[in-house]
Specification:
15% strand, alpha+beta, binds zinc ion, 151 residues, three-stranded mixed sheet, single chain, globular
């Protein structure tokens, strides 16, 4: 938990995934444990189902991606894991945070960074003024080029 991404500026405390799962009466299977380990291996990682499945398969070779997908679904429903659509066919998973994040996705290499609500400051007010729409309380995904790719 010592690393912070430069665009984001702080580290996150992780939810106590496995403990919470048990507290909610959900079984902590070896597979769920391995999924959680994959999701929390690096700070601020955004992993696809295939990436997670590959890590689980290192320990449990018989597990396939669709099984991992169903397990992730349980973790998402329990509020422990966040699922984000970041671009047309890209779905990423990460441990849930205690505050909302928006995502910046690199068009070059697919890297993902977090930004916070304060980035948008008075956007809500300005949109309201311009067209009378009230912005929904949702996450926003922005696309661009990461520091490495813009060089
Ligand atoms: Zn944050
Ligand atoms: Zn990039
Ligand atoms: Zn994220």
């Amino acid at each position: 938990m010592s690393e912070t991404s430069p665009a984001h500026g702080h580290a996150h405390a992780l939810p106590a995934g496995p403990a919470l799962l048990r507290a909610r009466g959900r079984r902590l299977t070896r597979q769920r444990e391995l999924i959680w380990a994959a999701l929390t291996a690096e700070p601020d990682a955004h992993l696809s189902v295939d990436q997670i499945a590959a890590r689980v398969q290192e320990e449990l070779p018989s597990v396939n991606a669709s099984t991992v997908y169903r397990s992730l679904d349980v973790l998402v429903r329990e509020g422990l894991v966040l699922r984000s659509e970041l671009g047309s066919d890209r779905t990423f998973y990460e441990p849930a945070h205690d505050h909302r994040h928006h995502h910046v996705v690199c068009r070059g290499c697919g890297a993902v960074a977090h930004v916070h609500d304060d980035l948008f400051e008075d956007l809500q007010t300005r949109v309201d003024k311009v067209c009378g729409y009230a912005l929904a309380d949702e996450e926003v995904t922005l696309f661009g080029f990461c520091p490495a790719c813009r060089e």
